[in-house]
Design goal:
The protein is mainly α. The protein has helices spanning 2-5, 34-54, 58-80, 83-100, 110-130, 161-178, 183-194, 199-206, 210-228. Helix 2 (34-54) crosses helix 3 (58-80), helix 3 (58-80) crosses helix 5 (110-130) and helix 4 crosses helix 5. The longest helix is centred in the N-terminal third of the chain and has 23 residues, at 58-80. The N and C termini lie far apart (43 Å).
C-alpha cells in the first residue's frame, strides 16, 4: 500500500482507508441555477474544511477525502486500468495532499489542486513502471464503463436486449478510439468531458497553458471523430 511507502505525519484515517467510491454530498438546487449554486456552495465548503485542516483538524480533512475520493479514484483508474493500483495511487495522492496542505493557498479550488496532485502521482508511477516519458505513452485504453462519479445515481432502467447490445458495441468502439490517442489527449478529454472541468482548471492540473489545453481538446475531438466516423 502507498501509505507504507511514505514517511512523515500520519494522515487522517480516511486518507488510507474506507471505500474507494465515496461521494459528494447532495445539495438542494435552486430553480434556474441549481448546478451553479451547488458548485459555489461545494467550493465554499471545501475552503472551510481546508482552513480547519490546516489548523490541525484531521476530521475536516477526513471530510474532504470522503467527499472527493470517488472522483480521484475514477480518474486514476481510467489511467492505470487496475483496481489495486488505482486504490494505492489514490491513497498516495491524498497522503501527499495531507503533507502539502500547509502550503495550499486558497487562490485555487481544492478539487483543482487535488486533481493536479493525482495527475503528478500517476505520471510519476507511469514513468517508473514503463521506463519512458508519460508523454510517449500511447496505449492507455479509456474504459468508460468503469467511471464512477462518486455521487448517487438514479436506478437503472431495464434496456431491451438489442438496445443493450448496441450500447455495448458503441462503448467498445469509443474505447478503441480513445486507445489510439496519446496519454495527454486522453487525459484532457477525461477531465473535460467526464469530470466537466473548464479550461482553466485543466490548465492548472496539467501545468499547460490554456491555449495548449484548448488545442489538445480540439485535436483529440477531431481524431475521435475521424476514428469513429467509419463505425457510426
Amino acid at each position: 500500500m502507498a501509505s507504507n511507502r511514505l514517511n512523515g505525519p500520519v494522515p487522517p484515517e480516511s486518507a488510507v482507508g474506507g471505500g474507494a467510491g465515496g461521494g459528494s454530498q447532495p445539495y438542494k438546487k435552486k430553480e434556474g441555477q441549481g448546478a451553479l449554486d451547488a458548485s459555489i456552495q461545494s467550493a465554499a465548503e471545501d475552503a472551510e474544511w481546508v482552513q480547519k485542516a490546516q489548523s490541525g483538524d484531521t476530521r475536516a480533512f477526513d471530510r474532504l477525502v470522503t467527499k472527493h475520493r470517488g472522483k480521484i479514484y475514477a480518474m486514476i483508474l481510467n489511467m492505470v486500468k487496475n483496481d489495486a493500483d488505482a486504490w494505492d495511487l489514490s491513497q498516495e495522492a491524498f497522503i501527499k495532499a495531507w503533507k502539502a496542505l500547509p502550503k495550499f493557498e486558497a487562490r485555487a479550488r481544492f478539487t483543482t489542486w487535488m486533481f493536479r496532485i493525482s495527475h503528478n502521482v500517476v505520471y510519476d508511477w507511469l514513468r517508473k513502471r514503463r521506463g519512458e516519458s508519460a508523454g510517449e505513452l500511447h496505449d492507455e485504453v479509456f474504459d468508460a464503463s468503469r467511471i464512477e462519479s462518486g455521487a448517487a445515481t438514479a436506478p437503472r432502467q431495464e434496456k431491451r436486449p438489442d438496445e443493450a447490445m448496441a450500447q455495448k458495441e458503441l462503448r467498445g468502439q469509443i474505447e478503441a478510439a480513445m486507445g489510439r490517442l496519446s496519454a495527454e489527449h486522453q487525459e484532457v478529454i477525461l477531465l473535460r468531458e467526464v469530470q466537466g472541468m473548464d479550461y482553466k482548471q485543466i490548465s492548472e492540473i496539467t501545468e499547460c497553458s490554456m491555449g495548449t489545453v484548448m488545442s489538445r481538446i480540439h485535436y483529440a475531438r477531431k481524431k475521435l471523430q475521424s476514428y469513429l466516423r467509419p463505425e457510426l
